[in-house]
Write a structure and sequence with these properties.
With about 325 residues, the protein is α+β, with helices and mostly antiparallel strands. The protein has a domain of about 210 residues: q2cbj1_9rhob like domain (Jelly Rolls). The chain has ten helices and twelve strands. A hairpin with a 6-residue loop joins strand 8 and strand 9. Helix 7 packs across helix 9 and helix 8 runs antiparallel to helix 9. It is globular and about 55 Å long. It starts with 11 loop residues before the first helix and ends in a 25-residue tail after the last helix. About 5% of the residues have low confidence. This is Fe2OG dioxygenase domain-containing protein.
Length: about 325
């Protein structure tokens, strides 16, 4: 059922920039049938409204969270911790169930093209329907749940099932592949989008189309010890100092995620406003976002930001990857 052709686009892009796309990942017939099954499950009330925990500063000064629903976005987890979930959706969706049952074929194809991923398990899978009227997702990384001890999530795969999508409908997944330019990817029918789960910041732009925006989200476990995306090698096309900074950050995922809070501060704030109704909780979340951004920025050496602001975004990628150097954050962050 999976028909992914990994020769469509340069395979190096996944390792160098952290994302990759291809067309025709499933047949037109399969896409149509799965879409109708997901919409039928939604109509039957089997999908629940999506929510996010907004991080806020509590009255006692601590950091806490409040759960808020994302308007017009509905979903159901079909696989959790590697096991089948939500049996009612799977029982009434035989083509969808068969597609998920054959995820091993997809993993095999991806492992043949990117053997360093060593994908060995589908950790989680969910279906989503965005009913329009501006439904969106804020900027985030696809980190595994804090309760998922020992999780080895490395790769996110999005399969879009939207034959009626048209330019202007919105709903693009916007990839922010630091240090490269932002890339909005339209949710076109049968399109597969891959990216690094834990190091690729992304958001979903507001969707206003007349027909539901449907997608399947898959999260795979694999080899977590290999930096993904890969540390950039020295290259004449890039400023050497900027390249070194990026190379070091990519070997320290937690610091890279913290750095993105500074680099994409305004984009992240905009995405929160797009995804949630105005409220005191949203205002509190925005206030904490900028508070934490300033705290991270205070640790970054001023020359680091000066170099990057002068040179980024990089416009093209190197074609040859070399062995990475030992990560050394000295000089990038102050006070570490």
């Amino acid at each position: 059922m999976w028909e992914v052709d990994c020769s469509q686009a340069p395979r190096e892009k996944l390792r160098e920039q952290g994302f990759w796309t291809c067309e025709g990942a499933v047949s037109e017939e399969t896409a149509s049938e799965v879409r109708q099954e997901i919409l039928a499950a939604h109509a039957a009330g089997l999908l629940t409204q999506s929510g996010n925990v907004l991080a806020v500063r509590l009255h006692d000064g601590g950091r806490g969270g409040v759960t808020r629903e994302k308007p017009n976005v509905f979903e159901a987890d079909l696989v959790l911790a590697g096991a089948a979930s939500c049996p009612k959706v799977l029982q009434q969706s035989p083509v969808l169930a068969a597609l998920l049952a054959q995820e091993g074929m997809l993993r095999k194809t991806l492992n043949e093209s990117w053997p360093w991923l060593v994908l060995d398990r589908l950790e989680q899978a969910k279906v989503q329907v965005n009913s329009g009227n501006g439904g969106a997702f804020p900027c985030h990384f696809d980190l595994p749940s804090a309760a998922a001890k020992g999780a080895r999530r490395v790769l996110t795969a999005l399969l879009y099932l939207n034959s009626d999508w048209r330019e202007g409908d919105g709903g693009e997944v916007e990839i922010l592949p630091f240090p490269f330019p932002d890339v909005p990817v339209a949710p076109c029918d049968r399109r597969l989008v891959l990216f690094s789960s834990c190091t690729t910041l992304h958001r979903v732009r507001p969707y206003t189309g007349a027909c539901g925006r449907v997608c399947i989200n898959l999260w795979f476990e694999g080899e977590v010890s290999v930096p993904f995306p890969a540390p950039l090698p020295p290259c004449e096309r890039y400023d050497a100092q900027a390249c070194k900074i990026v190379r070091i950050l990519r070997q320290q995922p937690a610091e890279l995620r913290a750095f993105c809070k500074v680099w994409y501060a305004n984009t992240m704030a905009e995405s929160l406003r797009d995804a949630f109704e105005p409220s005191e909780e949203l205002d509190a979340a925005l206030a904490l976002h900028f508070e934490e951004m300033r705290a991270v920025e205070s640790r970054i050496a001023p020359t680091t930001l000066e170099v990057l602001r002068e040179c980024l975004p990089f416009k093209e990628t190197p074609l040859v990857l070399r062995e990475s150097e030992t990560a050394d954050l000295s000089g990038l962050f102050d006070g570490m």
